Amino acid sequence: MSSNREHFSSRLGFILAAAGSAVGIGNLVGFPVSATKNGGGAFLLIYALFVAFICLPVMMAEMAMGRKAQKDPYGAYKKLSDRSTKWSIAGMLGVITPFMIAVFYMVITVWIFGYLAQTTLGNLDLLAQPEHFDTFINNTNVFWYMIVVAVIVNLILVGGVKEGIEKASKVLMPALFVLLIGLVAYVLTLDNAMAGVKFYIVPDISKLNAGVLNGALSQAFFSLSLGMGILMTYASYISKKDDIVGGARMVAITDSLVAFIAGLMVLPAIFSFNPNTNPEELSDSSVSMIFVYLPKLLLALQSDIGYVGASLVAGVFFLLVFFAAITSLVSIVEVPTATLIEEARLSRKKALMVLAASIGILTVMCTMSFGMVEWLTKFTWYGGANKSMFDLVYDIFYDTILPLNGLIVCIFVMYKWKKAKLSEELAQGCEGYEGSWMEKYVNFSLSTFIPVILLAIFINTVATKFF
Ligand code: PHE
């Protein structure tokens, strides 16, 4: 079975696909804004430390599980635990989580595509109106955009690992990088650009507190696509000769680098638009930054470069975010796809049909939960007023279950699968791993403080979100 399992054609293909998953909406706007609000350079440093010392070992563990088992997350937990029922439940959670995150990410990707289409049609002035976003998300036109996004994702995934995911990543990732660098180069020429760079980079240690640290770690976790079963699934498509340790490091570096560079695009733009911006007043939510604040700011560029010029810059920006979102969406839908192919023995086409229908229905419901359908807007029973079905999916699966899944990975590899087997797997393709300081650190951290930190985040989230 595993002999005819599909594989990436090269290590580069795997790294680009995994980096494509990791680089998403969170990197481009959410990261720069929260860095600026929460201590600038001090935040950047802490974030880098979290990525290197907490996230990287978890990433290596996820990848090792996937490659060893050559299976989707459900199959991996089952196989590596010798079919234990308890661990199969963990595996199920490892598939339900990406399935549900696919729903909320699809909703946002559809909006991005809508904004991209609207800018291309020359409607930037409309997008920049204060109430436009609310009108837009409640207009039935979003369903047309949804169909286009679903078709794109399906076309990529139906091609499979090599011809679909890998090929798309090899085009979209370099394109994304070029668009990003182009925008940075342009934005840095604007008046007051450097004021923004200063706020982003100069450290302000006084801003760091427990809440900021918690937020930074959760952000790093989400940004690296951890706890979603994605890296486990993608690593199941690489061979024993490939170096997981080096691959994980490359993915973490690429993801963090893109997030960092995005700050050199977003902050100069914000400060050039309004030199007196108070960073503390910037919205925490990537959604309101992307769909409400930035269109206003992009339209203001017309005083310099005219309406067409401003629309062009806006178009490039939304295209960039769209590319980032599509590669992430593809990666997350691939997880339940792999499960249906392997566990339910469906063909790839059939698996995708089942998922298009099921993710589709839930996405439509979430899309309607902003006002189109009354009862979907009122999920008040779980967390107070103003909660919608979209909030429910977001709060449970993104905020709460991700750190839990990370915790489960740590406990599984350390106490069920065992250190020696993890080391043996990581050493395949990475000469010198066994006996290295890296091995010692990975085994020590995954069996001690990393699960404790993830447990603390999980408990804290449950307590604040649901009680
Ligand atoms: N790393 C992605 C991002 O920053 C997270 C993600 C991956 C979300 C895959 C959904 C699917 O947006």
TrEMBL record:
It comes from the Bacteria. PROSITE patterns: NA_NEUROTRAN_SYMP_3. The chain crosses the membrane at residues 12-35, 41-61, 87-117, 142-159, 171-189, 216-238, 250-271, 305-330, 351-376, 396-415, 441-463. The keyword Metal-binding does not apply. It holds the Pfam family SNF. It is found in: Membrane. It is a multi-pass membrane protein. One of its GO terms (cellular component) is membrane. The keyword Membrane applies. This is Sodium-dependent transporter. It comes from Pseudoalteromonas xiamenensis.
